[in-house]
Write a structure and sequence with these properties.
Elements: H1 2-7, H2 15-40, H3 45-70, H4 72-75, H5 79-92, H6 94-109, E1 117-120, E2 123-130, E3 134-140, E4 149-157, H7 160-163, E5 166-168, E6 175-184, H8 190-222, E7 233-238, E8 243-252, H9 256-272
Antiparallel strand pairs: 1-2, 1-5, 2-3, 3-4, 6-8, 7-8
Length: 299
């Protein structure tokens, strides 16, 4: 290549920059072709995403290899200068270095992966991309109630994995325990009320209770955790105002809100069909006595 550049009459000073541009162009073009083929393939989204990220990382690696090969003769003289400047560079780029180390930890530490629902630094959302320096989340919550997207895309430095807890809602056990409370008036048929709550939660969660039990069994084999039940539970407590039923159940981490809606809807329909045998309670106030009021008409 250098011989061809000499024949073209290009000064030697421009040989290496031209070789570098050619190398970058070839590598980028090959990577572009591979990424296009991955996009057109029938791979599922997760495999396609990982393949594209691997191609992107390989592209940077080949860029670096090209720089080292083309400028190998000049790198020796930079050793002393780099050694002197190393401490200053490390201090100035400590956050960048920590983020890069966090990226390596994410690759091999099983903290989270694209598609997981996590909470990082107080921000909750679904992981949509993991870069070398930052993790990108589709945020949920904030001014929006429930586990719903609010439309903001948040980028968080990977160094957060070393500084704060990482809450993963979907990694090894893609289910959550959730519960709702149903207040029932005193004098209602509480046995019938319990049956209504039990039937509602069993019918709503039966489609994935078996899978949740299997996943939890795998959790007990992998971690030192008790063999908790994944079957729905209905418990009763009585307080000064009403009888309260707590319905505890396992739910898919993406269906918390819709499952609550279905449960309350089913329970309300069932209560209406009891003809008053079961009545839902609400906060009320009872005045038991009033102080004596004296009215004077003397002007």
């Amino acid at each position: 290549m250098q011989h061809l550049l000499n024949e073209m009459g290009i000064p030697a000073l421009w040989h290496k920059p031209i070789l570098l541009v050619v190398w970058f162009t070839v590598v980028w073009f090959i990577a572009y072709i591979i990424r296009s083929q991955i996009t057109k393939s029938s791979l599922d989204n997760d495999v396609s995403y990982k393949a594209k990220k691997a191609v992107t990382f390989s592209t940077y690696v080949f860029f670096s290899i090209g720089i080292v090969i083309i400028y190998s003769a000049s790198l020796g003289g930079l050793t002393v200068a780099l050694g002197v400047a190393g401490a200053g560079i490390a201090f100035a780029l400590q956050e960048v270095i920590a983020s890069f180390a966090g990226w390596l930890a994410l690759l091999f530490g099983n903290f989270y992966k694209p598609g997981d629902r996590v909470q990082l630094g107080g921000i909750k959302g679904d992981v949509i991309d993991i870069g070398i320096l930052r993790t990108t989340l589709m945020e949920m919550g904030n001014w929006v109630e429930g586990d719903l997207y609010n439309g903001r895309i948040v980028r968080i430095a990977n160094s957060f994995v070393f500084k704060e807890p990482v809450f993963n809602y979907s990694s090894d056990f893609p289910f959550l325990w959730d519960e709702i409370k149903v207040p029932v008036r005193y004098g209602s048929d509480f046995e019938l009320a319990r049956e209504i709550c039990k039937n509602a939660v069993v019918n709503e969660t039966k489609s994935y209770c078996e899978e949740a039990a299997y996943k939890w069994t795998e959790m007990t084999r992998k971690y030192r955790v008790e063999n908790a039940t994944t079957d729905p539970i209905v418990t009763l407590t009585a307080n000064d105002n009403w009888i309260e039923f707590t319905i505890r159940y396992v739910v898919d981490f993406k269906r918390r809100r819709i499952t609550k809606d279905h449960l309350f809807t089913t329970i309300l329909h069932a209560v209406q069909k009891t003809d008053g045998r079961v009545q839902l309670a609400s906060a009320t106030f009872e005045i038991t006595s009033l102080p004596t009021i004296k009215v004077s008409t003397t002007p």
